[in-house]
Amino acid sequence: MAGRRRSDRKLRGKLRSPGRPPVARQEHRHRFWAFIAAGKTSEDAAMEVGVSQPVGTRWFRQAGGMAPSHLARSAKPPSGRYLSFAEREEIALLRVEGLGVRELARRVGRAPSTISRELRRNAATRGGELDYRATTAQWHAERVGRRPKAAKLATNPELRSYVQERLGGAVGVPGRAAVPGPAVSWKGRRHGRRQHRRWGLAWSPQQIAERLRIDYPNEGRMRISHEAIYQALYIQGRGALKRELTACLRTGRALRVPRARMQGRGKSFVTPEILISERPAEAEDRAVPGHWEGDLILGLNRSAIGTLVERTTRFTMLLHLPPMEGHGVGPRAKNGPALAGHGAEAVRDAITGTITTLPEQVRRSLTWDQGSEMAQHARLRVETGLAVYFCDPHSPWQRGSNENTNGLLRQYFPKGTDLSVHSADELAAVAAALNSRPRKTLGWRTPAEALDAALQSVQKGVATTA
Length: 466
What we know:
This protein is α/β, with parallel strands linked by helices. The chain is 38% helix and 7% strand. It is built from 18 helices and 7 strands.
């Protein structure tokens, strides 16, 4: 008995367990990070795998948004000499049937010695018996197979001090006291737009990594890659850099965002069949009037004015978008209605009320950017007869006439001013001023004259056809 393993001794007292098997198996985590790499959110990836959404969120945050190296897509799969989880499940099922070691080995396709060691080493012994369960066996195998390596920043104090000083040091004039800057509390997530950021030396991890080669040209131990610095910031438990230092990064992100998720971001209401590439050719060459371009110009306090420009005549119509009742009274409700006046419903009503004052012959299509204010474009098409198309992301030149007109409108509505103070009559007066201004592209005619000529030609064509 003295030479045998403790785990081989039956009917012994319960031993202290090193922990319990994780909530989900390693295969679940592999699939989870595969879905994350495909662009899914942590909640959606958790549902696909079959675990709860809080578990998926915890996995994502604990890893800093980065797949662990052994779970990444680039990681090599385990060698075939090791038992897989599927084989362990088969062993557990056959073991319940009462089969012996050699029969198990024959059916699984492994050596009898491999099966014998597996049943002894990775058995569930918490209750004093050699019970074999696939999940517990897989957990034992993964725990024994770990080869943890200490982070370089955790074992090299001088290197860690160098990185921390340049990443999160205080701003100040040499020889004088440091300037503290604004007090920014770290909340474990990205700081919002236009909010105060912590003042630091603002060196990026790549600048730090490359500068080490200049400051320490002959010391190999003072070398680290910028990726290792990012991992030390984002991944909990590395024991090197505090995650609060992510507030000093230029992005301010507390979690890394997978590239596929960024590429997959877009408006759900924009489908391939309504992109600008599907717009008729007659709209591109400006030969036929009735094709419009639209956008919003924004001001202070979330104020906005809508603009519509006809591509052929450059005729401009302005949309009055006053703030709705309750705007600015209390704190903004998360996922609440858009009270600023340029939500999807308000913009749809404004376009409908404005564009329907024109004859149907000059209401052919409308091209907009992929802003959420056009989420109700399908209903707009039904109400007005306008075929709505959307530009490609970050491509304002695809609405060149509208962008040019917005620049002209800034003479009347400068940036940084509250646009909600202007009434509908004032917007109509500004539109009339633009439409009565001679344009070089129209042969020095005004947009109003060009639209009037287009309407007359359309009416003559209708009369001739009749």
